[in-house]
Known about the structure:
Blueprint: H1 2-9, H2 19-97, H3 103-139, H4 142-148, H5 151-176
Helix pairs in contact: 3-4
Amino acid sequence: MLDTLLSVLGFAGTGGATAIPALVGAAGGGILRVIPEILKLMNAKADQAHEYRMRELDLKAAREGDERRLREAEQAGSIALEVKGVEAFVEAVKAQGQKTGFAIADILNALVRPVTTYYFLVLYGLAKAVGVFAVWNTLGHAAVVKILWTPADEAMLAGLFNFWFLGRVFDKKTARA
């Protein structure tokens, strides 16, 4: 087998003595020529992996930037919507306070809130009176206040006083200014 290889390479008849260094030199030269190519392939693979990671990071940064800009736009839209809502409320309150020029319409407009408040207070008072009567007859007078005066009652009374009396404080301050 070695003879066949030697004859193909041009070393026929030498007995292989001079062929061995030539074969080692040829193999060494081939290996030394292939090593840079292998290193280039490995370097190219590393470059491609690095490029892939960089593109992934760029995409992630772009996605996060888009999400941040979207959140900012949503917040700006929400703020603008709230501002418009407050402006519409202010305009509605201003419109309610303006006189129409028709005496009957102006009187009815001025009486809507007080009449609604008095109607609600009468109904609320009747409901509480029925409750007092029912609790008094079943549990006794000591349980009436504990059962019938709740945090909701306190909140309702505070809201009623604020509505009717706190507005006067602000009206007096604006009248002085």
